[in-house]
From TrEMBL:
Keywords: Transferase. It comes from Rhynchospora pubera. It comes from the Eukaryota. This is HXXXD-type acyl-transferase-like protein. The keyword Transferase applies.
Length: 467
């Protein structure tokens, strides 16, 4: 068992600046409505676990990551800026928040996790995710404090383990969503590979930085009816949670999807993720043993890039997400079958069209508000992240990652974070956060147990990642 006390110590912190001035970088970047809505939300904190490259020293790994991060910041210039709160009117009646793009830089932390190995990070089947995971991510207090001008928007941490390394990123959610987070992570890895091979750095997917604004409301910036961040930044500390990873194989999900579509009798319209969301909604609601007349909601994070007409570039670097929801009573959810619940989720996704997105933005411009953990009802289940994100394609040149993991930021009872399964081919991993008594009941739920799959064994991960 790994130590329970603090085990991660900082070896050195590097200040990393863009490799050179990007002539396309403006001095200020205005935030879109989707960005502004995330100002009160915690940093995105995700990372990847690797075995040690056999032919590289730790110093060589750090230097390659550092120099390649300099190049990445040239292309992704907002990442090295700072948030600034600007008073818009005399007397401080309103303000706006912008990104200053003067290239202040980011931090790269080199850390050591004493006595912790790959197996400890992965956690054995049936074990909670370890508490020390949050220490593998940089400056966890970034998810708690915000002063509007001094915190870096991005911090990276490379942690030495007993038999591997962990690369964790903390990225301000007001700047990017999950799609852009993994776009940056993959681009950084691509630059490392280019430099290792002695090739010119030409990104296969260069970012698009122009923010999307809806017409009819004048020019940006978006003005907020506040004079300082303290009036609109809310931080919430959730109660102690149990967090566990659950694996769903391709075969299991094919069966689940077929079951949902067969039961709803609407044709093959329900997606795998909609069927899986409905399963988790039903099983967690049952585990909570809520009153039958209680309302319960399933919320799905959904991106807008492909739904807008014309669509945004897939390389749009920023936030382009909303949350869609469907609500019913506990009795209706549990008395009906999986297909009935999956159809509700399907309808909420199908209704998120170009016109629906524009209506949401129009409403937001009339009444700006901010997402925080109070936004989510205590009886809800929230599906975040996506198994479509290219996490395991993030190749730094030393083999496939063994696992993707997250920190404690933005976690609450009922939060589910979706990852692609390590073996790919349509498999999915879910990171589930619940109160202890609910997690215990979920792991005994027959409907849930009929679908969840055994995790990939460590020896298989180690064998395949080196190929």
């Amino acid at each position: 068992m790994p130590p329970t006390s603090t085990t991660v110590r900082t070896i050195k912190t590097y200040a990393v600046n863009p490799a050179r001035l990007n002539p396309q970088a403006p001095r200020q970047l205005h935030l879109s409505s989707w960005d502004v809505a995330m100002l009160s939300f915690g940093y995105i904190q995700k990372g990847l676990l690797f075995t040690y490259p056999p032919d590289l020293s730790v110093d060589q790994i750090i230097e390659r990551l550092r120099s390649s991060l300099e190049e990445a910041l040239y292309h992704f210039y907002p990442a090295s800026g700072r948030l600034r709160v600007v008073t818009c009117e005399e007397g401080g009646a309103t303000c706006h928040v912008e990104v200053g793009c003067e290239g202040e830089g980011v931090e790269l932390v080199h850390a050591m996790a004493d006595g912790i190995g790959i197996a400890d990070v992965l956690a054995a089947d049936g074990q909670d995710l370890p508490e020390f995971l949050k220490e593998l991510f940089p400056i966890d207090h970034l998810a708690v404090n915000f002063d509007g001008c001094t915190n870096p928007l991005l911090v990276a941490q490379v942690t030495e383990l007993a038999d591997g390394i962990f690369i964790g990123l903390a990225f301000n959610h007001a700047i990017i969503d999950g799609t852009s987070f993994w776009h940056f992570f993959n681009a950084w890895a691509e630059i490392v590979r280019c430099k290792q091979a002695g090739k010119e750095v030409v990104l296969s997917q260069p970012p698009m930085h122009d923010r999307w604004f809806i017409g009819g409301y004048g020019e940006p910036p978006i003005r907020l009816p506040y004079s300082s961040p303290s009036e609109f930044i809310v931080r919430v500390s959730p109660p102690p949670l149990k967090e566990r990873m659950f694996h769903f194989s391709r075969e299991s999900l094919i069966t689940l999807k077929a079951k949902a579509n067969g039961e709803c009798e609407k044709g093959s319209t329900i997606s795998t993720l909609q069927a899986l969301s409905a399963l988790m909604w039903r099983c967690i609601t049952r585990a909570r043993n809520l009153p039958l007349e209680q309302n319960t909601t399933c919320l799905l994070a959904i991106q807008n890039r492909t739904r807008l007409q014309p669509p945004l570039s897939p390389n749009y670097f920023g936030n382009s997400i909303n949350v869609v929801s469907t609500t019913t009573t506990v009795q209706e959810l549990l008395d009906n079958n999986l297909g009935w619940a999956a159809w509700l989720a399907h309808q909420s996704v199908s209704n998120h069209t170009d016109s629906a997105i524009r209506d949401l933005v129009h409403d937001y411009m009339k009444n700006p508000h901010f997402i925080n953990l109070h936004t989510f009802d205590i009886h809800s289940v929230v599906m975040s992240s996506s198994p479509r994100f290219d996490m395991y394609g993030c190749n730094f040149g030393w083999g496939k990652a063994l696992a993707a993991r997250s920190s404690s930021s933005n976690k609450f009872d009922g939060n589910i974070t979706a990852y692609p399964g390590w073996e790919g081919d349509g498999s999915v991993d879910l990171e589930v956060s619940l109160l202890a008594e609910y997690m215990s009941e979920l792991e005994k739920d027959e409907e849930f147990l009929a679908v969840v799959s055994p995790p990939i064994k460590l020896e298989v991960l180690l064998g395949m990642s080196s190929m």
